[in-house]
Amino acid sequence: MKTLISHFYNEEYLLPWWLDHHKNNFDHGIMINYFSNDNSVSIIKEMCPDWEIVNTRNQNFDAVLADREIMDIERSIDGWRVALNTTEFLIGDYSLLDEDPERKDFFIPPLIMIDNEKNEFTQPNPHESLVSQRTYGVSYEIPEYFRFKRARKISNYFSEYPLGRHYENFNTEKLVILWYGFSPMTEELINRKTQIQKNIPETDKQKGLGAHHLVSREKVLEQFKNWQTKAEDMQNNIKKIQNLL
User: Fold this and answer.
1) Mode of pairing for the β-strands spanning 28-33 and 52-55
2) Most buried of the four, 16, 29, 140, 188, by CB within 10 Å?
3) 214, 205 in Cβ contact below 8 A?
4) Which of 70, 6, 86, 13 is CA-nearest to residue 43?
5) Helix, strand or coil for residue 197?
6) Phi, psi of 218, rounded to the nearest 5 degrees
């Protein structure tokens, strides 16, 4: 059994690509709804009718409580489980999870996806895989880039997460996460990156938690342009991870 868990708030832009990408690689999905008022719920019901949609027990996006809710869900299920955000697309050899019955977990590195100048502010085809359309980014092999977006864990046992669910090291390259944090760089993605701050409690802001969400449109574009100067076409890397080369 492989279960994918995610929390979402008004993700109607990325969800169709994200669900289509993952639905055939996981036996089940559990989606935690943070008071969405767009079409996110209906999209999930249409594309993954057997997946669970649960309303969050939290009043807002408190970083500690959000992780605790995911941990409580993971505590209640068996088999392999991973918690991903809607910007995170897991690619690679899923059979890795079945090769060694004694293996308990894998720590998965990310590629940071960034639109090149040709693609910025152009819409990808909604009927084609986002992974096949947007392939520019930077590699986790460069330490400073890995530090910006660290590893996620997929495991077949329950354990406590560190705050933010990130890890300082990875132990496989057969599975990789494509983090679409700056791709597709469109107005919809900018709106997504700036909307979450409305749901972050003041207590988190005072503690410095979720600071990366407290951004203006101008700040998002500044970050994007900075990353864009570092990006290169990762198409061959992605195909190699997907065993297509």
Assistant:
1) parallel
2) 140
3) yes
4) 13
5) helix
6) -65, -40
Amino acid identity of residue 143, one-letter, is P
Domain that holds residue 223: 2-241
Structure tokens given for 54: 């649960």
Residue 201: C-alpha distances to residues 15, 170, 211 (Å): 25, 31, 11
Distance (Å, rounded) from C-alpha 93 to C-alpha 117? 31
Instruction: Dig out the tokens for 205 from the structure.
Output: 């802001």
Confirm if 113 and 137 have CB atoms less than 8 A apart. Answer: yes
DSSP label of 121: T
Better-predicted residue by pLDDT, 128 or 60: 128
Q: What percent of the chain is predicted at pLDDT more than 90? A: 74
Q: Name the burial class of residue 14, with classes exposed (0-12), middle (13-18) and buried (19+) by CB atoms within 10 angstroms of its CB.
A: buried
Mean pLDDT for 36-49 is 97
Structural domains counted in the chain: 1
